[in-house]
Amino acid sequence: MTTRTARSSGGRRRHGPSHAVPRGRQGRGPVWGAVAALAVLGAAGFVAVDGSPAGTGAAHAGARGGPTERARSGLLGGTGTAHRSPSPAPATTSASPSPSPSTSPTPEIPATGPGTFATAPGDSTRVGSGRLLRFRVDVENGIDLSTADVARQVERILADPRGWTAGGNSAFQRVSSGPADFVVRVATPGTVDRICGRYGLDTGGEVNCDVGGQVMVNLKRWLLATPVYAHRVKDYRALIINHEVGHFLGHGHVGCPGAGQPAPVMMQQIKGMHGCLPNVWPYDAKGRYLTGPAVT
Description:
The chain has 296 residues and is an alpha/beta fold. It has one domain (21-97, 112-248). It is built from five helices and nine strands; from the N terminus they run βαβββαββαβββαα. The strands form two sheets. Strands 2, 3, 4, 5, 6, 8 and 9 form a seven-stranded mixed sheet that branches. Strands 1-7 form a two-stranded antiparallel ribbon. The longest helix is centred in the last third of the chain and has 16 residues, at 233-248. It is globular, with a radius of gyration of 16 Å. 57% of the residues are buried.
C-alpha cells in the first residue's frame, strides 16, 4: 500500500489536504456548525458515497498525474461524494437519478467505533485502461452498512464513463485479498478523526481524508451528505470517492472556473459553490476534464 503525505480539503495544503485541516491551524468554525445543523434538519432518512453542503463543496486542486508518495485528505464530497450514473442534466452533472425526499427518521450515527474493519468479499472486473490500481473496500465493524452494497457503489463510481478512467491513464479493480494500492474505508467520525489525525489532519468529526493509501469516508457524510446534496445523497457519495481518489492520483484542489459552470470534482465544494453548479464527476459526458484555477 502506498504511503503518502497528508492533505486536507478544508484548509491549507500540507502536500495537499482535501477536506481535513492540519491540526492546530484551523478550527471547525461556523461553517461546520451550519453544516451539522443543516445535515440533521435537511437530510433525514438518507442511507448509505463525500460531497458538499448546500452552497458549499469539497476538493483538492492539483496537477494531473499518477499516484505520488504522498497521503492526501479531503471531503469528496465528494467526496462529493463517492455519491451516479445516467447522463447529466444540462445544468447539473449527476451520478444517478435523484432520490425522492424521505420521510424516514434521521439515522443514528455512532460518534465512534472500534477502529476495526470488515472487508467486502469478492473481486470486480477491471475497468479502464492504463495503470491498474487495485483497491479494497472496508466498513468499520459495528456500522449498520452492508460491505457488499458499499463495494458495489464504489465500483459503479469508479467505472462510470465520466470518472477517472476517462483520462485513459488509470484502470481500477476491486480485490478482497492480496496487494491493494489503496483502500476505501467507511468509518465513524471518531475513527476517521483518529486515523487522519495520525497524519496531522483535523477532520473535526465532519469530513473525509485520504492518507497513507486510505480513502477515509466519514459515515456522517456517507449517510447525510451536505445541504447542497441533501436530496442527492448517492451523487454526493460519488463526489467523495472521486475527490479523494483524485488526491490519490496526484490532483490538488482547484477553484470554480466561472459562474454557471460545473464545479470541478477537485474543488472544495464544501466551502461554497462560488457560482458554480453542483457536479460530482471529473469529466463531462463528452470526455472533457473539468477543472479550474489551482488553489494553493
